[in-house]
UniProtKB/TrEMBL annotation:
Species for this entry: Parasedimentitalea denitrificans
Whole sequence portion shown: 1 to 115 of 143
Source taxon at top rank: Bacteria
Motif (Histidine triad motif): 99-103
Protein name from the UniProt record: HIT family protein
Residues of the HIT domain: 7-114
Length: 115
């Protein structure tokens, strides 16, 4: 079940601030408030969706398109050596905010990846 009062729903509606870095008709990307790397962006669909278990093929396609655009852009913007993608589903899977999102993290040689 999707609860529209989740924090990313509020960001989408402009009810709480965020640092937006990319947007198209179907998706929004913004900086994570507690970054685990210098470049840590979250990509979400604009339509209601709890997580990957709940997503339509169209939502997955739209989000993954933006994830790839952001990954390529962050390699340049953060002079990164690599990119980590993370995505969690349900509380037992590590999900804390129940609106589908992908983490995109810019990585540099020598980074501790799982800190
Ligand atoms: P997950 O659900 O994938 O475990 O993690 C949710 C992510 O959302 C965390 O990395 C957390 O720092 C981020 N987050 C939580 N609240 C906010 C917020 O109000 N604004 C932004 N930009 N990120 C948030």
């Amino acid at each position: 079940m999707y609860d529209p009062d989740n924090i990313f729903g509020k960001i989408l509606r402009g009810e709480i601030p965020s640092t937006r870095v990319y947007e198209d008709d179907d998706t929004l990307a913004f900086m994570d408030i507690m970054p685990r790397a210098e470049g840590h962006v979250l990509v979400i669909p604009k339509t209601p969706c709890r997580n990957m278990l709940d997503a339509s093929p169209e939502q997955v396609a739209a989000v993954m398109k933006t994830v790839q655009i952001l990954s390529r852009a962050m390699m340049v913007a953060f002079e990164a050596d690599g990119i980590t993608l993370q995505q969690f589903n349900e509380a037992a899977g590590g999900q804390e905010v129940f609106h589908l999102h992908f983490h995109v993290l810019a990585r540099h040689e020598g980074d501790r990846l799982w800190a």
